[in-house]
Structure to design on (155 residues):
């Protein structure tokens, strides 16, 4: 997630992003009160959600590391014409406006109305060398592939 409320860009790694609705296109994620990026995200009217590939675990870790300068590598990010910072290597980025926030314990749920999507390559889904999705599960990073299986819940 990247945003800028006027005092400079911030980024964080969310452990989950969930689609809420197709019409309107809504996404939801949560931010902790402990994250230094949370105040800026909550003050922003818009932001960018990045869907990273498995080969981008370093970027996910960078944005999850407290105190790291996530924007030190000036070649790794740019700004949209609307001003939001984004990581140029993300295979998919989704710009959206913040539609609502809800306090939930020590976190805040952020609902984003997706307004624009950018794909690194227009035919990315059809390519055999398309990036594999990066997934965080059970406190570690994974990639999805044709061999991945959905396992039934514990009984």
């Amino acid at each position: 997630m990247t945003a800028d409320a006027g005092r400079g860009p911030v980024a964080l790694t969310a452990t989950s992003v969930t689609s809420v609705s197709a019409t309107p296109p809504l996404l939801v994620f949560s931010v902790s009160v402990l994250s230094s990026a949370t105040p800026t995200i909550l003050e922003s009217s818009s932001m960018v959600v990045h869907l990273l590939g498995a080969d981008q675990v370093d970027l996910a870790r960078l944005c999850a590391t407290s105190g790291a300068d996530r924007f030190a590598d000036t070649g790794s990010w740019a700004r949209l014409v609307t001003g939001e910072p984004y990581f140029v290597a993300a295979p998919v980025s989704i710009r959206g406006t913040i539609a609502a926030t809800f306090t939930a314990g020590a976190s805040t749920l952020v609902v984003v109305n997706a307004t624009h999507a950018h794909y690194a390559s227009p035919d990315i889904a059809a390519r055999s060398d398309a990036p594999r999705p990066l997934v965080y599960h059970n406190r570690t990073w994974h990639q999805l592939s044709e061999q991945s299986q959905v396992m039934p819940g514990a009984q």
In short: The chain is about 10% helix and 40% strand. The helical segments are 38-43, 57-64. The radius of gyration is 16 Å. The longest helix spans residues 57-64.
